[in-house]
Amino acid sequence: MTKNIALIVTLISSLVFAQEYPGLRETDGSIHLIHTPHISAVDTFNVLDYGADPLDNATDDQAALDQVYARAGENDVIYFPPGYYNFNKGSIYKSTAHLKMKNGMNIIGASKDSVFFISNFPLSTNENESTMLFYGSGVHDILIEGISFTSTYSGTMPTSVSTNNPDESAPKYGIYLTANGLWTPCYNITIRDCDFELIRSQMVRISQSHDVVVKRCNFSNATDIGGGGAGYGVSIQGEGHEIFRDGYPADCIHNLVDSCNFIGPYIRHGVIIQYTAHNNVVRDSYFYDTGYDAIDLHGEDEYLNEVYGNTVEDVLTGAGVGVGNTGAEHDASGRKNHIHHNTFNRCREGVKVYLESPETQIYNNIANDCSKGVYLLNAPNTNVIGNTFKNSLYGIHLAHDGGTLGNYDGDPDSVAIAENILQNNSYGLKFDAGTNIMLGENQFENNTVADSSFASGVTFLSYTGIEQGTVPNEFTLSPAYPNPFNPRTTFHYGLPESGILRINIYDLQGCVINTLYNGYLDAGQYSMSWDAVGIPSGVYFLRMTAGNKSKTQKLLLLK
């Protein structure tokens, strides 16, 4: 028996738990650098020199643009002076797009307030083809700047998020970027200081591509918000449902939406991330009055994405950030999406996590005047730490998840809630369902009905939170006490640096039987208890991992 215990200790101690870093990080944790557009401007091609008409009229400027395209080479600039440029048919290089991009091409307008790129495809083409203003397949090192992308659409604006607008006289896409097979993605593309409106489906679509930056752009007035891919500002997506492309060039990774505005009501989602896309970032942007979730992690296994520094207001029929999605082939989002330092004002939910989307990290956000600051359904190992929830019906609400299409129903499990400020809500914490909840120290003030409300059947693990004292100089784990124990033991630990912490309990076979913590935690001194109610007597192992450091100790449960 002693020999077996020693073998298990050696086995667990030798396990390597890969640290996974969200957002613009490499797999080793180093920062992924954002490319800088480089314009050597070998030549500048002014579209007026090729017959383009800048007046606001019906003149077709497609032939002039085709001529410029034929002459412009890598690192050249296609320049649009102030004016209105009308395009009544597709390019000779791609019939469903007005411009087919090529490597090193820079398309620059005088400013988005003075240059208008106006699509006017024939009605039958818009109805029957996937029309787009710009198209790029497997291209790289491109700058698009200072242009307003729009169309001549004059139909009825959408009135429903559940029924598609029957008027399809607008182009389907604005800028469409996609890979050419698995080996030739789009990359190092910057779209900045542009406006997008009167486009039906996706104003910027980034598919199977990496290092695409959308910066300081405005999105409004989609001509359809009724579902089926309609009404998106920016879509960031992989190849398809449950198709993972980690390690392939055409993996959808390291794309950035930065300092943009998404203005409803004619926007379904401001930004959507889906189809196993990972390590993408949405930051420092403003979202207003979208039809559904302003930022939508679309229930297609997207993971390690980072959403921070955004302000979301007046989303009355959705969340500021939604994690998971119902219906069709949608279900859970992937693991460890980080949502932090955002502000949510007057939203139905600040953040909603459901359908078994795992390990979501929700920290340092502010929610004001929302129905629910954070709403957790089937959201295993989610951490809600250091947020402020004010003037809402529920600061944090946990409830049963009914699932989707007969699957993914369940209760919140192994959720950590600590260090939050809950002020002037009706309920600070409302727990209608939940198991193995780790409830730490939270601050309550002037919640009118109750600071905390717990339904029968909700179960908890002890989580006592940060202790008084300085940040330790090293990674520490104190011996659990008592040990042997029945049924609860307590241990203390210290983190010299903030980061992702994992605390698991293993049995003699090396199987995880309890995850006590799995998420982001600030540097400091902490304590935690394991309540082994319902666990049989025996030898167990507590293992704590932070980055490339880990500690293990033996526990003996005697009943």
At the first level of CATH, what is the class of the largest domain?
Mainly Beta
| Shape, per Cα inertia axes | elongated
Helical percent range? under 10%
Overall strand count: 48
Q: How much is the average pLDDT?
A: 91
Description:
By secondary structure, the protein is mostly beta strands. The chain folds into 2 domains: 119 residues, Sandwich (Immunoglobulin-like); 416 residues, Pectate Lyase C-like, CATH 2.160.20. 5% of the residues lie in helices and 40% in strands. It is built from 3 helices and 48 strands. The strands form 4 sheets. It has an 18-stranded mixed β-sheet, covered by helices on one side. A 13-stranded parallel β-sheet has the order 3-6-9-12-15-18-21-24-27-30-33-36-39, with no helix packed on it. It has a 13-stranded parallel β-sheet with strand order 4-7-10-13-16-19-22-25-28-31-34-37-40. The longest helix has 13 residues. It is elongated and about 85 Å long.
Please name the defining characteristics of this protein.
disordered N terminus; single chain; elongated; Immunoglobulin-like; 48 strands; Pectate Lyase C-like; mainly beta; 559 residues
Would you kindly provide a brief summary of this structure?
The chain is mainly beta. It folds into two domains: 2-25 and 463-557, Macroglobulin (MG2) domain (Immunoglobulin-like, Sandwich); 44-459, Pectate Lyase C-like (3 Solenoid).
List the helices and strands and how they pair.
Elements: H1 2-14, E1 44-46, H2 62-71, E2 77-80, E3 83-87, E4 97-100, E5 106-109, E6 115-119, H3 123-128, E7 132-137, E8 140-145, E9 148-151, E10 173-178, E11 187-192, E12 195-196, E13 202-207, E14 210-215, E15 218-220, E16 232-237, E17 256-258, E18 261-263, E19 269-274, E20 281-283, E21 286-288, E22 295-297, E23 306-308, E24 311-313, E25 319-323, E26 338-340, E27 343-345, E28 349-353, E29 361-363, E30 366-368, E31 372-376, E32 383-385, E33 388-390, E34 394-398, E35 416-418, E36 421-423, E37 427-431, E38 437-439, E39 443-445, E40 450-454, E41 460-466, E42 476-477, E43 488-495, E44 499-506, E45 512-521, E46 524-531, E47 538-546, E48 549-557
Parallel strand pairs: 1-2, 2-5, 3-6, 4-7, 5-8, 6-9, 7-10, 8-11, 9-12, 10-13, 11-14, 12-15, 13-16, 14-17, 15-18, 16-19, 17-20, 18-21, 19-22, 20-23, 21-24, 22-25, 23-26, 24-27, 25-28, 26-29, 27-30, 28-31, 29-32, 30-33, 31-34, 32-35, 33-36, 34-37, 35-38, 36-39, 37-40, 38-41
Antiparallel strand pairs: 41-46, 42-43, 43-46, 44-45, 44-47, 47-48
